[in-house]
Write a structure and sequence with these properties.
This protein has 643 residues and is mainly β. Helices cover 9% and strands 34% of the residues. It has a ten-stranded parallel beta sheet with strand order 1-2-5-8-11-14-17-20-23-26, with helices on both faces. A ten-stranded parallel beta sheet has the order 27-28-31-34-37-40-43-46-49-52, sandwiched between helices. Strands 3-6-9-12-15-18-21-24 form an eight-stranded parallel beta sheet, with no helix packed on it. The longest helix is centred in the middle third of the chain and has 16 residues.
Length: 643
């Protein structure tokens, strides 16, 4: 009876293609828009990006982009302000979007999706970067995603995703894949997504590793209350060499294979705990009713979970129902009014509070929290790595001061998982507290090869503010990745791209300290902002800030083609290089970059030798950007934050 109900749920999911996917988009029965892309010139556009760019900002009408057969050699980005898109090809074999870029997983994807409410059908996505890699030349294989998803309410039907490493960056949000083909060798389905793969063909092309085993999944669940997981139901898993079903990208990693065919290429152990050896009790890897020669469980790792019929039924049915409710549920949690009762938690290393670590306090906040919860952190240096899952919004983190209340850790290399403090939840406020990544602390002056990306703080969420906080590292100090953020009277220290990402943020009265003496005379970079299009609302605005340093520094370089950074009424020291800005990879395309200075002062504010392509903004444009009401706070979220 239970499995009959489960199959009913699966069949219901199969009908999602007929259901309106979001309350934010128009009903299916209302008028929709159709755009045709055809390389031959027989459509409105000849490239997919042109079609995406034509969709209006804040779109709420389902827009169908039909892509005629062909290989579209382009890199495509869908900005966050362009939801409600259906991308449809003829078939995944004859309609392909491909590009060849690798190395930085955050910016090398062939197709990057920042918008919610997206559907793709009968189309392929390919990253060709590793295509010419010689068998066994492991050092040449780079991270090269074919598709990157960082959003919610996304589905794919009969699509293909092809690369070698990190093929499908299933990073965050609820996603559904039906009858898709996914190919790769190393971590080729990875991230923290909450996703179902139904009837998909998984092809592990691990012969390129010359006998070494590859990995299908690297799932990144962050806590016991984190709803994310990868669930493979009725899939076919084959390969060209040995591979593991998955390895743990985060401590609570969760992957389930159900009623799937597993070929003999599956390693007998099945799974790998990766960086979490000895902590396998928190990992949920399970197989249920699978078949094929690779489904032999006799030599599996001892810590693989065995789910009872009741547990499997409860887990899968809850998971499926969560996905089925996509059309009815908002992903963002609304917090209680400021004047309503709130909760206070005290963290004190001496044992005089409820908890002795910040992570313990975060873990105590209930899932889907909607009561403003104040976590008071008593003075001390808290040596821990902290993660706030997406289902724990409405938190205020408060120390005594940024100098005597510090959270620090020392990890680096992979910018997505090395941050001292990682925030996935909306509606967050921090005050009088510091965040530090100590990884590069002992690096010798001029030893560039030893410097690694080591964020002190990573934000991937919306409605976040910081007041009198400190962020300290060397490279990628503050990953201001996505969402609306406000920084007031904060201290930010680093040498290379130490404020970076695609955030929509105001920095008011902050002290920026470029500690570039570690670069032994080479110039560093304060910002690397990642605005994706002319309609993308993101940008970094520095208002009445102070910029000083210990060596030469650029105000910023362009992380994306439409990068936007403005310094207004700020003090700039002599450490600012005369050119001011760098176009980085977009030399010759500077017309789309918005780097500007307005009414700044100090010896570094001399504009006489600035790059010629720096923008001069009108007073109206500047006013609109520096005013929180018009740039980040249109819905009044800042005033609603308590304490």
């Amino acid at each position: 009876m239970r499995y009959s109900f489960l199959r009913t749920l699966l069949l219901a999911l199969l009908s999602l293609s007929k259901v309106s996917f979001s309350q934010d988009c128009s009903d299916q029965n209302q008028d929709s828009v159709t755009i045709v892309v055809d390389q031959s010139g027989q459509g409105q556009f000849t490239t997919v990006q042109q079609a995406i760019d034509s969709v209006p900002a804040e779109n709420n009408i389902w827009t169908r982009i039909i892509v005629k057969p062909g290989t579209y050699k382009e890199k495509v980005v869908v900005p966050a302000d362009k939801p409600c898109i259906v991308l449809e090809g003829n078939s995944a074999s004859d309609t392909m979007i491909e590009w060849g870029d690798g190395g930085d997983v955050n910016k090398s994807a062939t197709f990057t999706l920042y918008a919610d409410n997206f559907k793709a059908r009968n189309i392929g996505f390919k990253n060709t970067y590793n295509e010419m890699t010689q068998r066994g030349d492991l050092s040449s294989i780079k991270q090269a995603p074919a598709f990157q998803i960082t959003t919610d309410k996304v589905s794919f039907y009969k699509c293909a995703f092809i690369s070698v490493q990190d093929t499908l960056t299933d990073f965050r949000g609820r996603h559904y894949f039906e009858s898709c083909y996914i190919e790769g060798a190393v971590d080729f389905i990875w991230g923290g997504g909450q996703s179902i793969y139904q009837g998909c063909e998984i092809n592990a092309t691990t012969d390129i590793l010359n006998g070494l085993a590859g990995f299908i999944t690297a799932q990144g669940r962050n806590s016991t209350t984190d709803a994310s997981a990868y669930v493979f139901s009725q899939c076919s898993v084959k390969g060209t060499g040995p591979f593991y079903l998955g390895r743990a990208y985060r401590q609570y990693s969760r992957v389930v294979f159900h009623e799937s065919y597993l070929s003999s290429d599956v390693e007998p152990e099945g799974w790998d705990s990766w960086d979490y050896a000895g902590q396998e009790g928190t990992i949920t890897y399970a197989e249920n009713q699978c078949n094929g020669p690779g489904a032999d469980m006799s030599k599996r790792v001892e810590w693989e979970k065995t789910l009872s019929s009741e547990e499997l039924y409860s887990f899968l049915s809850t998971f499926l129902l969560a996905l089925l409710s996509l059309s009815k549920v908002s992903y963002s949690q609304v917090c209680s009014d400021q004047n309503q009762d709130s909760v206070t938690i005290v963290v004190d290393q001496s044992g005089q509070g409820q908890f002795t670590t910040v992570q313990q306090a975060i873990d105590s906040v209930p899932a889907e929290n909607n009561i403003w919860t104040r976590i008071i952190v008593k003075p001390g240096t808290y040596k821990e790595k902290v993660v706030v899952p997406g289902d724990k919004p409405c938190i205020v983190l408060e120390g005594n001061s940024a100098s005597d209340t510090m959270i620090e850790w020392g990890d680096a290399g992979d910018v997505n998982k090395s941050a001292t403090f990682t925030l996935y939840a909306d509606n967050f406020k921090a005050r009088n507290i510091g965040f530090k990544n100590t990884y590069n602390e002992m690096t010798q002056r001029g030893d560039f090869s030893s410097i690694k990306p080591a964020p002190a703080f990573q934000i991937t969420s919306d409605k976040v503010s910081f007041h009198q906080c400190a962020f300290i590292s060397v490279q990628d100090t503050l990953t201001d990745f996505r969402g609306r953020h406000y920084f007031r009277s904060c201290y930010i220290e680093g040498a290379v791209d130490f404020i970076w990402g695609g955030g929509q943020s105001i920095y008011k009265g902050c002290k920026i300290n470029a500690t570039t003496d570690i670069l032994a005379g080479s110039a560093g970079y304060i910002t690397a902002q990642g605005r994706n299009s002319a309609t993308d609302a993101s940008g970094y605005i520095f208002h009445r800030c102070s910029v000083r340093g210990t060596g030469p520094v650029y105000l910023g370089r362009a992380y994306r083609q439409y990068s936007r950074v403005v310094f207004h009424q700020s003090y700039l020291s002599t450490d600012v290089v005369p050119e001011g800005w760098d176009s980085w990879r977009y030399a010759g395309q500077e017309g789309t970059i918005t780097f500007a200075e307005n009414k700044c002062n100090g010896p570094g504010a001399d504009m006489s030798t600035r790059v010629k392509w720096q923008k001069t903004l009108s007073s109206e444009e500047v006013d609109r950007l520096i005013d929180a009401k018009t740039f980040i706070n249109q819905d009044g979220w800042l005033q609603k934050q308590p304490f």
